[in-house]
Design brief:
The complex is a heterodimer of chains A (675) and B (317). Chain A is mainly alpha-helical. Among the domains of chain A are: 277-514, no CATH class; 582-623, no CATH class; 629-674, no CATH class. Chain A has helices at residues 3-28, 40-55, 79-102, 108-130, 134-152, 159-186, 200-205, 212-228, 237-243, 246-271, 279-302, 306-333, 337-372, 383-386, 388-401, 408-420, 429-461, 468-472, 478-496, 498-513, 541-564, 587-597, 625-649, 653-674, and strands at residues 60-68, 71-77, 567-569, 603-607, 619-623. Chain A is globular, with a radius of gyration of 26 Å. Chain B is an all-alpha fold and 317 residues long. Helix content of chain B is 68%, strand content 1%. Chain B has helices at residues 4-36, 46-55, 67-83, 102-122, 126-157, 162-170, 178-194, 213-217, 222-247, 261-285, 294-315, and one strand at 60-62. The chains are: A mainly alpha (675), B mainly alpha (317). At the A-B interface, helix 16, helix 17, helix 21, strand 3 and helix 22 of A face strand 1, helix 3, helix 4, helix 5 and helix 9 of B.
């Protein structure tokens, strides 16, 4: 019994439960959402397997007795995959718990569909993490893409959902194509004897031609980036996340994007090997990361559909993860090992954080949408009175994602800054300025995120209801509350006890770099958190909470009398006859200063009424500039080329034979030339 | 390392000191402003009188607001008071018990900003929303500059701990380096923006079109208003102490033991006296900026911080 076999059987169990669930729903004709709870057990097993493997540092591997002829499937579990397995298993549990309540009212055929594909989706994600050869990796990767595609299509009777699904499928396959190319290049290494070089083990030790590392790096960045949602390959995210049901969005945004990050780390650090990385690659990752972070948050501020807004925040957070990863590559290749390992830890820490708070936020947004039936923030308001639990959980998620102490989002951003401060010891001024500007952009996007979540929480949960539906909203059920509660507690725990997460990160960093994290030895690791040295920086979230509680307790006692006699009264409305909820600030108003300051990032269409207009109307439409500037022309080009190709297609058989003959001759000439 | 109880006792003493020093500073600042405007100044203790009176009044909660609105004044006050433990006041020695660096301090201040804006949104009034939105706007404009200022001070001490930076500056030459001059100027602009002072915000008016901070305060009454005002006073004091620690720490310690405490307090009082005078005079001399000119102001702070950072490499190495 090894951790790998536990994980492997858990994956098989997920697949089996998916099949069994859908069959049972079909047989009984009822939605049976409680069947989701069965899938929690494999989730627990995956967590156990990951923790077990991380307690040592060994690599477990296993060859399955089936696969292609002469190439059986190979699995392996090293600390990197174990860490991601822990994240996968841990987040799957509350999301599955949430699903048992959330899909209560779903029609049976849709429930059967979800019961089939959600466990299969989880299982294939785990398979990607365990794959140890190119074929297995791509098999599970494609399985994951297809399972998530089917999940996005749950509400396929709506036209826009189908469009979103196909856009996602297209981008996923462009990504897979690029990843395939990078694997092909990797297996052209010198001691790669044919097919067997598809195993990761052989690829790692191959000697690569000079031009291969850069090509592999760029192809894998673009390929995995298309899945992770880096700018400009992000366009599918804001379409697919609103289309999918909330738990599916939570899994896709919280976990699938992380699997793409895992793939990038695996190819760049595992297969390509850190010896092939040059500082320029780190700088490119950092630049793309910073742009994604800024672009994501700016567009999130423009949205008033909660799930679309969260989708743009996923782009931002992937950017933050990449800033950390880029810092690691940059520092490592320039020989600054201390900040490098800290940056890597920051990046992995943010992987965990984003998985926790983004799934929490998606579940919260899903509850709000389900209970009010509204998809527009501007129609909500005052939900904290009717949905107190959902509101508090969402608020915790919002404070986490905004990177505020003492919650978990702050720690990964803080670690990134602590590492970026070492930019002063870099020799090249170009790299130095990239690091410093990325840090400034990280600070800017952090503050913009805070603004965006003040908007979401303030407009939807606080103040007065703007519509009767929001007025009548009811709290979600117990399974939903428990699911969100677990994730909120995890956000708080990771923020207050960061050393627990560092215990998991240390073997990962050690196995990939051969260097341990530079944390100083100390007597009370649970109290003091200091990534590099006590002199550079230390942080104690528990003491912050202690002093906060102390002062707050004294204040509470001192003002208890005054607050218990507080009088509730309508606010003074400057003499206007009526104060209506519509007078409150809206989500669009919140974006107004940002639209103005960062105008080049948006494509805006506005109609502003002129004076004297008897029926004034105000319209505002903010869109992604990449649609009109990149994808629009690209689409036109594809259509143009296919129309031209159409002309030579519809011909007589003799012409077809001529095409074949010309092609064959050209190929023969080419190979004649080469030999 | 001191024992926990000594640490707890000194922290409590420091917090009590901050609670009483903050209104005194605001009183002094208002005196300077009044003198500059040729008015008879109110007494130094005027804030105590104002807020003491507010504490005797009743609390009125706006209809439709939630529990958050009741708790935010107390949470904001506690957070700001707690954050004063992270800045050097009279004891710059790194005694191992400082529970956060400058970045943590900035994080706590952002948390305060977020909570204040949420409280304003919770009142459900048009002004509350506008105030909250503008406060967050100033916040995101100031944040990149703040980070760069911290990068600049990191160059001096290779630490983001305010105490360590103060210590290593104090042991160096008293002549300011160009990077610290630019960094200090940038920090001054950030301080004005973050504390709703002129030219970003006018603390003395309640004009709908321009107010930021006051728009968020409109619905607080009685003790909750007093807490919010007091918290704002603590916030400006924390910013000033941070600025003193990072840029003018000379004399923060008089010497070892209790005998050193008295001269250190003298220096602190002198510095705060000067800071109040400079702030008051500056605020009276400038006119308030249009809200959409604020980005230019904050870009200036950002550029100054970049200049500070670069001049370290160009001029000082």
């Amino acid at each position: 019994m090894t951790p790998l076999s536990v994980a492997f059987f858990a994956l098989l169990a997920w697949m089996g439960l998916g099949l069994a669930g859908s069959i049972m729903v079909r047989a009984s004709g009822k939605p049976l959402p409680f069947l989701f709870s069965l899938s929690i057990l494999p989730g627990l097993a995956v967590v156990v397997s990951g923790l077990w493997a991380l307690s040592g540092s060994s690599v477990y591997s296993r060859t399955l007795p089936f696969g292609l002829p002469g190439l059986s499937l190979q699995l392996a579990q090293d600390p990197l995959s174990s860490f991601f397995l822990v994240v996968l298993g841990f987040v799957s549990i509350p999301v599955l718990l949430f699903s048992t309540g959330f899909f209560r009212e779903t029609p049976p055929e849709k429930a059967g569909w979800l019961l089939l594909w959600i466990p299969v989706f989880l299982g294939t994600m785990g398979g990607v993490l365990l794959a140890a050869d190119v074929f297995t990796f791509l098999l599970f990767w494609e399985g994951m893409a297809l399972a998530s595609f089917f999940l996005v299509l749950t509400d396929m009777e709506e036209g826009w959902v189908r469009n979103a699904g196909f856009l996602y499928l297209l981008m996923a396959h462009i990504g897979t194509g690029l990843i395939l190319l990078s694997f092909i290049l990797l297996s052209t290494g010198q001691n790669g004897p044919g097919l067997s070089s598809l195993s990761f083990e052989d690829i790692t030790h191959a000697i690569l031609p000079r031009w291969v590392p850069w090509s592999v790096f760029l192809l894998s960045l673009a390929g995995f980036g298309a899945k992770a949602g880096i700018v400009p390959l992000h366009i599918w995210l804001p379409e697919a996340h609103p289309a999918a049901p909330a738990p599916v969005s939570a899994l896709m945004s919280g976990l699938m994007l992380k699997i793409a990050i895992y793939g990038l780390m695996r190819v760049d650090l595992g297969l390509l090997g850190i010896r092939h990385i040059v500082p320029g690659m780190g700088a490119i990752v950092m630049i793309i990361g910073s742009l994604s972070a800024l672009f994501g948050v700016l567009h999130a501020l423009m949205q008033h559909e909660p799930k679309r807004l969260l989708a743009y925040h996923s782009i931002e957070n992937i950017g933050i993860i990449l800033i950390g990863f880029g810092l690691f590559l940059l520092f490592w290749t320039t020989g600054h090992f201390v900040p490098a390992t800290v940056a890597f830890a920051a990046s992995l820490f943010h992987v965990l954080n984003h998985a926790l708070f983004k799934s929490l936020l998606f579940l919260g947004a899903g509850s709000v949408v389900q209970k009010t039936g509204l998809h527009d923030l501007n129609a909500l308001g005052g939900l904290i009175k009717n949905m107190p639990f959902t509101s508090i959980f969402f608020l915790i998620g919002a404070l986490s994602i905004s990177g505020l102490p003492p919650l978990n989002g702050f720690i990964s951003e803080w670690l990134t800054f602590q590492s970026a401060l070492w930019s002063t010891s870099l020799q090249q001024s170009f790299l130095q300025s990239v690091v410093v500007l990325s840090a400034a952009l990280l600070a800017l996007s952090g503050a913009l995120t805070a603004m965006c979540f003040v908007k979401v929480v303030g407009v939807s949960f606080l103040g007065n209801a703007r519509s009767p539906q929001a007025e009548r909203a009811r709290e979600t059920g117990l399974p939903e509350k428990t699911g969100m509660g677990i994730l909120s507690l995890a956000c708080i725990a990771a923020g207050l006890l960061p050393f627990l997460v560092f215990r998991l990160l240390d073997p990962v960093v050690f196995s990939l770099t051969g260097d341990a994290l530079p944390m100083p030895i100390q007597n009370h690791p649970w109290l003091w958190f200091s990534p590099i040295s006590f002199r550079q920086a230390q942080y104690s979230p528990l003491l912050i909470v202690f002093f906060l509680a102390l002062v707050l307790g004294i204040l509470f006692l001192a003002t208890r009398r005054a607050y218990s006699h507080a009088r509730v009264a309508p606010t003074w409305n400057c003499g206007y006859p009526a104060r209506r909820p519509r007078m409150q600030d809206t989500a669009d108003a919140f974006g107004q200063p940002v639209r103005r300051f960062f105008a080049p990032f948006f494509r805006m269409e506005r109609t502003i009424p002129v004076p004297g207009d008897t029926r004034p109307e105000y319209h505002l439409n903010v869109r992604d500039p990449f649609w009109s500037n990149l994808y629009g022309p690209l689409l036109q080009m594809v259509v143009f080329i296919s129309e031209k190709a159409e002309k030579i297609r519809n011909r007589r058989i003799s012409q077809y034979l001529l095409y074949s003959f010309v092609t064959l001759s050209l190929l023969l000439l080419y190979f004649e030339e080469r030999s | 390392m001191k024992s926990f109880w000594v640490f707890l006792g000194s922290s409590l003493a420091k917090m009590v000191l901050v609670v009483f020093l903050a209104p005194l500073f605001v009183g002094w600042l208002n005196m300077v402003r009044a003198l500059m405007a040729n008015r008879t100044p109110p007494g130094l203790l005027q804030p105590f009188k104002d807020w003491g009176k507010l504490f005797t009044k009743e609390i009125i909660i706006p209809e439709g607001s939630s529990m958050l609105f009741r708790w935010i004044p107390r949470i904001v006050f506690s957070l700001l008071l707690m954050s004063s433990l992270l800045v050097p006041m009279t004891e710059p020695h790194d005694d191992g018990w400082v529970f956060g660096d400058a970045l943590v301090l900035i994080g706590i201040l952002s948390l305060v900003r977020v909570l204040m804006s949420l409280g304003a949104m919770d009142s459900g009034t048009p002004f509350g929303g506008i105030g909250g939105r503008r406060e967050m706007m100033v916040g995101f404009l100031a944040e990149p500059a703040t980070i760069l200022v911290i990068f600049t001070t990191y160059l001096v001490s290779h630490s983001t701990m305010t105490f360590v930076t103060a210590d290593s500056l104090q042991s160096g030459s008293i002549l300011p380096t160009p990077s610290l001059v630019f960094g200090g100027l940038s920090f001054f602009l950030i301080l004005l923006g973050e504390n709703a002072r002129m030219p970003i915000d006018n603390p003395a008016t309640h004009l709908e079109l321009t107010m930021i901070h006051e728009a968020m305060m409109l619905e607080y009454t009685g003790p909750s208003l007093a807490l919010m005002e007091w918290a704002s006073a603590i916030k400006i004091l924390v910013y000033l102490l941070m600025g003193i620690g990072l840029f003018f720490p000379w004399g923060v310690t008089g010497g070892p033991g209790w005998s050193g405490l008295l001269p250190a307090f003298g220096m602190l009082a002198g510095k705060l006296f000067m800071a109040g005078a400079i702030l008051g005079v500056f605020e009276t001399l400038v006119a308030k900026l249009r809200i959409f000119r604020v980005p230019e102001f904050m870009t200036l702070a950002f550029l100054l911080a970049i200049l500070g950072f670069l001049s370290h490499f160009v001029l000082e190495t």
